[in-house]
Write the C-alpha cells for this entry.
Amino acid sequence: MSELSVNHLLGIKYLTEQDIELIFETADHFKEVINRAIKKVPTLRDITIANIFFENSTRTKLSFELAEKRLSADVINFSAGQSSVKKGETLIDTVNNILSMKVDMVVMRHPNPGAGIFLSRHVKASIINAGDGAHEHPTQALLDSFSIRERLGEVAGKKVVIVGDILHSRVALSNIFALKLQGAEVKVCGPRTLLPKHIESLGVGVETDLRKALNWCDVANMLRIQNERMEFSYFPTTREYSQQYGINKTLLESLDKEIVIMHPGPINRGVEITSDVADSEQSIILDQVENGVAIRMAVIYLLASKIK
C-alpha cells in the first residue's frame, strides 16, 4: 500500500492499521532527513498550508510549522485571537476566506469536538485535525506510538498505561484508538472522577492504583491535569493528586522492572511527574518531540500526494 485510505486526518478512528504502518515507514525516511546537515526537501514546493489555531498551542503549532517548512511548503499562520473570529465571523467564512488565497491544506485546532469533520464536508482542502476539544489529537497519538516502536521495537503486544486526566484528554482517546489498532494492551489509571463512564467499552482496562498499573505496564504515558477544561475541582488538592498519581524516582526504582516513561507535554513538573523522572534515561519525552516533526512531515506528505 503506497497511499492513505483517507483524504483527511480527522481522527485515529478513521485510519486502518495499514495507514499507520505507512505513516511510520514514511516518518522513518523523514527522520533521516531532519538529522542531515541540510534538513529540507523540495517535495511540497507547490503546496500551500494554512495553520489555523482557535486554541492556544506552542509545541503542536511549532512542530507542524517546522514540518511544513522542512517539506518546502508555503505556510500561512492564522491565530483566532488576532482575527475576525473575534468580530463574530463563522468557522466556514474564516476558512473560505483563507482558501480563496488558494490554500491546499488546513491544519486546524479548535475547541469544539468534530470541528475538523464539519470543515472537511464544507471546504475543498485537505484537513488535518491538530486537536478538537476533548475529542481527538491524532498526530500526537501517532508520534506516541512511533516513539514506543522506536524504543521497544514494536507496539503489538506491549502493555501501555495512560495515567491522569483521561476525562478531558483528547490525547488519551486518540492513543487508545491507535494502540488498540496496533495490537497493544491498554489500561487507564487515575482517580475515578477523572475517568469517563463506560471507558471499558473502548476495550481498555481500568486501574485506580498507580503502583499496580506501573507494575503491569511496559510503558506509562503521563498526562497533565487539564485545569483549563475543568469547571470545578475533580480532586481535593494538587498535592494529594501528586501523592497518589504522580511518578517520582523513588516509586520508579521500587518497581519490579524498568518501564518507559512518556508525556505529551506540557509537563507540570512536580505534579504528574518529577524532574528527575522526566529527565531520566527511562524517559522518551524529548524523543517524542523530535518524532513529532517526522510524523507530521509524513502525514502532510502523504495527504498532499492525494491532492488532485
Summary: The first helix runs from residue 17 to 34.
